[in-house]
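hey
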């Protein structure tokens, strides 16, 4: 066979595409101003629209965007770090990514007034003979007033 080459063969590393133009997540001023503006949008949404569905929708959309930006920043830190620090940033990014899914579903539910998940998937099955969803006990209901004393239970009259 032939002799090995004396000069090394250049190999290009596979890199993720960079964002064109002015968007650079390496610039800490840009990232900080983006976080600040998202927090301001969240606060203004509550101040102008209140805490009803519209205000919550603006707040939750801003929160999903903040979480997405945090994932990008943590991934950038992972790519720069080495050894144990890289492991930390990788695990932190994965945990943010996992938490993004329920946040996104909750935002979708609030925006469009729908329930993505059924009630059966939200609660664990109750064992025993009573398999219905739990309900409040009558003693936890508010006390009776003089107007509706006829329909009160003994527990409500004690208050």
């Amino acid at each position: 066979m032939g002799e090995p080459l004396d000069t090394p063969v250049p190999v290009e590393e596979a890199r993720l595409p960079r964002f064109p133009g002015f968007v650079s997540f390496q610039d800490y001023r840009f990232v900080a101003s983006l976080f600040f503006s998202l927090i301001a949008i969240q606060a203004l949404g509550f101040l102008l629209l209140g805490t009803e569905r519209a205000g919550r929708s603006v707040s939750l959309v801003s929160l999903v965007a903040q979480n997405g930006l945090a994932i990008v920043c943590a991934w950038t830190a992972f790519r720069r770090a080495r050894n144990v620090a890289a492991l930390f940033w990788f695990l932190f990014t994965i945990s943010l990514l996992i938490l993004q899914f329920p946040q996104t579903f909750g935002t979708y539910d609030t925006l469009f007034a729908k329930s993505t998940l059924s009630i059966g998937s939200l609660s664990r099955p109750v064992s025993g003979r009573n398999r219905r969803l739990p309900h409040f006990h009558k003693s936890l209901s508010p006390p009776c007033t003089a107007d509706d004393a006829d329909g009160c239970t003994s527990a409500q009259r004690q208050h």
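The helical segments are 28-49, 53-80, 83-112, 119-122, 154-157. Residues 136-140 have pLDDT under 50 and may be disordered.
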